[in-house]
């Protein structure tokens, strides 16, 4: 969506997904090409499009090598946590989308969303090179 937040169905919430990736030649059964995630930014916004929370991984940024989680002041979290980098493991896009659908009850676009997310995540986990 060119970096603009997209409204989530059935909620007054918006989603932003930005991913950076690299394409390289593969040396094994993944070939002839391999796509690797270089960075990700997944964010949830309120109806005024203020960021509430975000999952980030951008290892090329100085001091930001590990995946982390942000809580922003618009989410009414104690101000001391706003803009703090809370550590997390690496989060797949599928995990983030599943969180929105299951935990925040966002209405999925497809009835078979679980099967689709499980399939794409399974392939990602099978071929990933960073765990």
Kindly describe this structure:
It is a single chain. By secondary structure, this protein is of the alpha+beta class. It is about 20% helix and about 30% strand. It is built from two helices and six strands; from the N terminus they run ββββββαα. It has a six-stranded antiparallel β-sheet, with no helix packed on it. Strand 1 and strand 2 form a beta hairpin. The longest helix is centred in the C-terminal third of the chain and has 15 residues, at about 115-125. The mean pLDDT is about 85.
How helical, in percent, are the residues?
A: 10-25%
Mean pLDDT: 85
Number of strands: 6
In whole angstroms, the N-to-C terminal distance is: 28 Å
Shape: globular
Salient structural properties:
6 strands; alpha+beta; 31% strand; 131 residues; six-stranded antiparallel β-sheet
Quick summary:
Helix content is 19%, strand content 31%.
Describe the protein's topology.
Layout: E1 6-7, E2 14-25, E3 33-45, E4 51-57, E5 68-71, E6 86-87, H1 93-102, H2 113-127
Helix pairs in contact: 1-2
